[in-house]
Design goal:
Blueprint lengths: L2 H16 L16 H4 L2 E12 L2 E6 L4 E6 L2 H9 L5 E10 L2 E11 L5 E5 L2 E5 L4 E5 L4 E10 L5 E6 L4 E9 L2 E7 L6 E9 L4
Parallel strand pairs: 3-5
Antiparallel strand pairs: 1-2, 1-4, 2-3, 4-5, 6-7, 6-13, 7-8, 8-9, 9-10, 10-11, 11-12, 12-13
């Protein structure tokens, strides 16, 4: 297999082992009273980002607010693909009581993905950041899903049931989206789903 396929398979195996504990996992950071205790400490973070005039503010699950600064190329690239109020989980260094130096983003929640999409004679309902339901003329299936950063404009996406995990890539462009699903054995694209966002009445 090519290098890209090998990387995809590594992510698939890793995700199958860790899911669901990894998806938006880890303790949320809280402000400590003694700044000396927290300076330069590495923490797992989860929350959402507010983007304003090119600056990023991170709000954790306890509603604590921090300035967010990416310190690695991968973190910078992932941040640039996010939109206002998207959710993230990852690793950061808490520089002081109001500043986080973002080292990596493990998973994201894309606010623009939430809702119903149509395509390929089916309805796909992304109910929240971890649950998706797919309706067809003959069935209705529930999946868990997670999204992680990838190169370029696309995202890496995982769909799982109790017995299986499927790896794919997700590209969102306005009101349209494309999901490429990969064969677990070869790493080749096995199926492509074209989606159109359903407008709310």
């Amino acid at each position: 297999m090519t290098g890209g396929k090998t990387d995809s398979m590594k992510y698939l195996l890793c995700f199958a082992f860790l899911f669901p504990t990894l998806c938006f996992a880890g303790r949320s950071i809280s402000v400590l009273k003694d700044t000396a205790e927290i300076k330069n400490s590495t923490v797992s973070i989860k929350g959402y980002v507010i983007i304003e005039d090119g600056s990023y503010t991170f709000i954790d699950t306890s509603s604590n607010q921090f300035k967010l600064r990416a310190v690695t190329d991968s973190a910078k690239q992932a941040l640039l693909k996010l939109q206002n109020l998207d959710a993230i989980s990852g690793t950061a260094t808490q520089y002081d009581d109001r500043t986080l130096l973002l080292e990596s983003i493990d998973f994201v929640g894309l606010r623009r993905l939430i809702g119903r999409w149509t395509g390929d004679s089916q309805l796909v309902d992304f109910q929240d950041y971890t649950r998706v339901r797919i309706f067809s003329s003959q069935s209705s299936n529930h999946f868990r899903y997670a999204i992680s950063p990838s190169s370029g404009d696309s995202w890496r996406v995982f769909f799982s049931t109790e017995n299986s995990v499927t790896l794919g890539s997700l590209l969102i462009q306005g009101q349209t989206a494309q999901i490429d699903l990969y064969d677990a054995t070869t790493g080749d694209v096995s199926h492509t789903i074209q989606l159109q966002k359903v407008k709310n009445p």
